[in-house]
Amino acid sequence: MTSIRLAIASDLHYVDPPRDGVSLPAAANSNPAGDPMQGLLTRIRKDSASGATHEFEADYLVCPGDVTNQASATGFETGWGKLKELQAALGARHLIATTGNHEVHSRAGEKDNVIGLSTQVLDPLAAIQRHADYPCTCLEDEARWVYWGRGYQIVEEPNILFLVINSSHFHPTTRANEFERGRISDIALESLRAELAQRIAKDKKRVFVALLHHHPIPHEAGTAPEENIQMHNGSQLIRLLEDTNVAWLVIHGHKHEGRLIDAQGSNNPPTVFAAASFGASLDGVLATKTRQQFYVLHLEICDQAIEPTAKFRVRAWHWTGTSWEPARKCAEGLPDRCGYQRPSFQRQPVLDALMGTLTESESFLKWDEAAAKHPELGHLTPDQIRFMKTMMSNKGIKTTWGDDDWFPQEVGV
Amino acid sequence: MTNATEISGGDVFNARDLAPNQVASNFLAPPVFEGLLSKVNSILEGPRGSGKTTLLRMLTPEAFSLWREATPGKSIEFIGVFVPADVRWAKQLTARTERISNSVAKDALLHAVFSVALNLALVETIQSCATLHARFGEAHPAIFFPLDRKYEAQVVEALSYVWSLEVPLRSFNGIRLALRRRQHELSAAAAQLADSRPLLEVQAELKYITSTWLDNLVTAVESVNDVLNRPDQIWAILLDELEIVPPALLQTIVDALRSTSNKLRFKLALSPTGSDLIPHDQPGSSSHFEDYRPVKLWYERKSDARDFASRLFASSLSRMLGESITEADLLQTLGSSWARASDEADQEYADAQAVSVDTPQMQRLRISAFKILYDRDESFRQLLDQKGIDPSNPSDRDASPEGTLVRKITQLVLHRVQELKSYTLAAGARQRGGARNQRAYLGFPNLIDLTEGNPRWVITLAESVVAEHRSKGLSIAAQSVQSNAVREFVQQMVAKLTVYPTKSSSPGRRWTPYDFVKALGTSISSQLFEGPFKTDPAMSFVIDQAAIDQFGDYIRTAIDLGALVIMRRGGLAPLASAESAQTLVGSRVRLTYRLAPEFRLPLLYLKERSLSAALKAGELLPESEARGKNSQRTPTESAEQENLPIQGRLL
Predict the structure, then answer these.
(1) Which A-chain residues 308-367 have CB contacts (< 8 A) with chain B?
(2) Distance (Å, rounded) from C-alpha A18 to C-alpha A8?
(3) Of A45, A212, B419, B487, whose Cβ has the fewest other Cβ atoms within 10 Å?
(4) Phi-psi region of B395 (alpha: psi -120 to 50; beta: other; left: phi over 0)
(5) How many other C-beta atoms lie within 10 A of the C-beta of residue A365?
(6) Which of A393, A100, A405, A395 shows the shortest CA–CA distance to A251?
(7) Do A400 and B168 touch (CB under 8 A)?
């Protein structure tokens, strides 16, 4: 096996159903026709039946949390069931999730003293803990309770190691404003440092993924101010991962805005993939910057014995309200066909090579054709893509670039 | 002509916004379509919903080829370039140029903006012909061609040269981007010209403004033909809804019909009154039949419309119900109409042949109606006695004058029986109260005849019938199903006529097009049901000068919406301005059958009378009375009245 495919669906936000209705993601606005999950399942089945290219296949389905909305028990039941349905449709070996702030009943109020709801108030994690396969379908019972106990668990699968962190671990607490941010405790960090060193040393020819709900580094999106508060001990976590001397991909949700950047650090900063929401309702500034998204990451398995190495490509789709389409415009979220590579590569030699290709051809190439001939072009981060237009222009490469497009439609000389 | 799921009801279907496969998927060719495939310039005339846009879209390479895959036949002799000219486009054009006071500058800008729209459509079409060559090239080598990247770059280079366009890349995407950039430049130029910046200065910056759209188009197609090595390739420009294009531009489009380029043809679409925008008898102007062929998309006679309407109705029912229904099945599916209403031409045929087309049931119905009316109506009794016609045996099978008369008046009798309680010479008519049933308009063929063969109307009515059938759980042949569907079908048109904007025909006059049409309908119904029985009531109208002077705008609107059907044109008028409806003077029109249920009229047209006389009879107040009413208001009230919106206030 040379690569691993991770499908990512974050922040589904299945809401409390209306009377006699069914629970749907918030983005559906109570209209089954606008259900992004059903839309995706239908699309996968249709593609499979028609023998179309299998874009929607994955080895693991990953969910960084907020399956439900405002701790709705019914929402969680439905959402978790749908995630497992999606896992099966993708052909994924396992579903690996972590706990989001909406999974935990952390803001009890007077209405929760109503008969019937008091049980939930007394046990804010009951709705999710009762599931033996939550947060990961590959965890045995004992290992699952370790997750609940210390706030993280490590899952080792062939060619990949998952560090699953419960950044909502302290949300069921007496501290009134704990829900405003995520946290990993000092003790957990200590334990993690020792354990990771031991496990990583066993085999460095793997992909290393950390999964948590809250953003470990600053990330200001168009959301409520309290949601911009950085995770407590987030920077310590990042430092810890950097010190392992392997390349880490940190996947989180919570912000509802997609982003792919390196964290802070000078030697081996982890790569942070902020997943946009799959099913949250978007409004305000956020609605102008992104859509609901779903991703499949193709991660190459690199030998990191000598130095941290990572290479992956991203397929990204956005929800139009009725269908899933590749994200081609900036307003649709993270771009389809972006990627990442470490060590990073010099772009000028790539553009020189592209110029050579274009000069040999008599006219122009579509972008997909150019990327196929020069694979590095498939490993550009969104920020690198933004600078590409200027670099190409400086290089004398002509492009047709539609309004708000991430990539040019065509390139030529 | 399209999937039921794409129609939400209420005449909302418009082929302009559909993809080629959607337009082609259920296209039913009317008789005129084959004629449009030739290289002749054509002007399609028809009211709303008559299929102008669909027909033009069907002349584009992809839609035509898709349709031909399912319906083999004659091929097309040109590559059709569809240029939509919808209200949005026209409004943008008007908005950009209306503040420009210099007429030369305004014309220059109009040409430039229109040119860009044409250029975009041409590029789109060339790309489509190349992309689809693999699929359709073998079947249609005349309209599809292979084009690799190298030739694409050459085509783009040639076009960018003739259009003075700087393209970012020599690709179709590149030239499209450049043309869109030019649209932005023209918006800025319009603003500058409106601020009185000299045209020469603007032209110095934007040199392409100096050329006309026709020059740009001719040089473009000739250059493309050279690159493709297709010297005989003909391109047809398909222009829709020209009546909303600014008049100055329309003049140049019409003049292009006399274009000397043998690589270009034009297929234009207009409303029936839009053709009066086409000047005749002016030196150099295009002339009827020499330079273009007019194609009429409405039917004067029911029998002409019925064949096409039946096929389309059956096909629509089939699609919506998921069953196989052909036009031959409609009699059974819909049930038979209570009687067949023959229009003049059919009547002449029946008279000549002394043939009755009625079933035994219809004959029983006629006998019953004659007897009932004989008893109720003194004037009718006198007529029959005078003519020696036995009401219990009104034979229509012989060629005698009595037989001819019976055939002629049967429909009138049937309708009068429905309306009248009694009529005496002394006391006049006493009409029946309560709601009327719609029997006269149900079943086959009368239900179909309501649609006038207008494709949009056919689909709308079929949709209503199916919706009623489904909601009631009754057969489509059930009277209540069809009756409710007819009611909805009629009310949709009434609503449209009520809200459709028109300029007032004179100060102080504020009628809706529905008021206007209602006056005409009332003029007929009052003859049929309020006075003595008439054997030949006036049920159609000749447009006289007085009517044009007072109600020109209403007449045009009613014709363009299909509420009035032109049966015979007036004579060709001398040069007409875009504001006049002069060519309609002398034209014979009738009310559409779609509105017959609204005024309880038979599906006939019979004799004609002047339109202004009909309007007076229909109680649309004459000018003097309207002015008299206004003079009774206070100055404040008058001012308020003037400021009220034109629509929404009924007399």
Answers:
(1) 361-364
(2) 28
(3) A45
(4) beta
(5) 21
(6) A100
(7) yes
